[in-house]
Amino acid sequence: MSNSPVIQGNDDPIIEFRGVFKTYPTGTHALEDVNIKINNGEFVFVVGSSGAGKSTFMKLIMREEKANTGKITVNGFDLTSMPRRQVPMLRRTMGIVFQDFRLIPTMNVFDNVAFAMHVVGASGKEVRREVTKALSKVGLGHKARSMPSQLSGGEQQRVGLARALVNAPDLIIADEPTGNVDPNMSYEIVSLLTEINKKGTTILMVTHDHNLVRDFNHRVIMLDSGRIVADNAGGGIV
Predict the structure, then answer these.
(1) Which of 200, 173, 177 is nearest to 190 (CA)?
(2) Backbone phi, then psi, for 166, in 5-degree steps?
(3) How many angstroms separate the CA atoms of 81 and 22, rounded?
(4) What is the H or E stretch that residue 127 is in?
(5) What is the pLDDT of residues 32-75, one digit of tens each?
(6) The listed CATH number (3.40.50.1980, 3.40.50.300, 3.40.630.30, 3.30.720.210) that belongs to domain 1-93+209-238
(7) What is the pTM of this model?
(8) What strand order describes the sheet that includes 69-74?
């Protein structure tokens, strides 16, 4: 039986959890009976207090962790039965933006973004074209030859966003992307993500910043003690 991703229709969810439970070997119950659908093209904030299960939720989507029971599908991949060798295929369909930037300090801005394309075997011509385009989208075309140490925190996060964008993923996962930048840059980052979302890319963003959630009118999923306790398509639950 093939484990290749199924072909999705426009109405199929890009992420679906059915009856998902996750307990760590320490006995910590991280997620309990999570059922959720996130459709293609949505922008979703994931909120909740520390220990609510947000990190585990994201790790399951990226297949960094496996559920104990239940079914998870992402981008047509069945994560429940997926062999480890297919995890890189799954991750090529998503872009990931981290709180701590995770730029390679010995590479300049251009090469940090290009690295994501080299990993998937893109040609030199494609790399030059797409990296230039991605840096332009985040307003950093003029910083292509700068080193990460020469950038502000906000600029470093925009490089991280360009890196997430460069392979044209269907889904961007942003894990506290504004956690290490100032409030003005936080709004810039979410505004950029919103513009990317308007062009069809699904955005899933974990945040503690309730002001951002209130000011951007996106769907909000709230976790508490491993359970989904609120899901509001119009925002406004925090």
Answers:
(1) 177
(2) -65, -30
(3) 16
(4) helix 124-137
(5) 999 999 999 999 999 999 899 999 999 999 999 999 999 999 99
(6) 3.40.50.300
(7) 0.88
(8) 29-39, 13-23, 69-74, 77-78
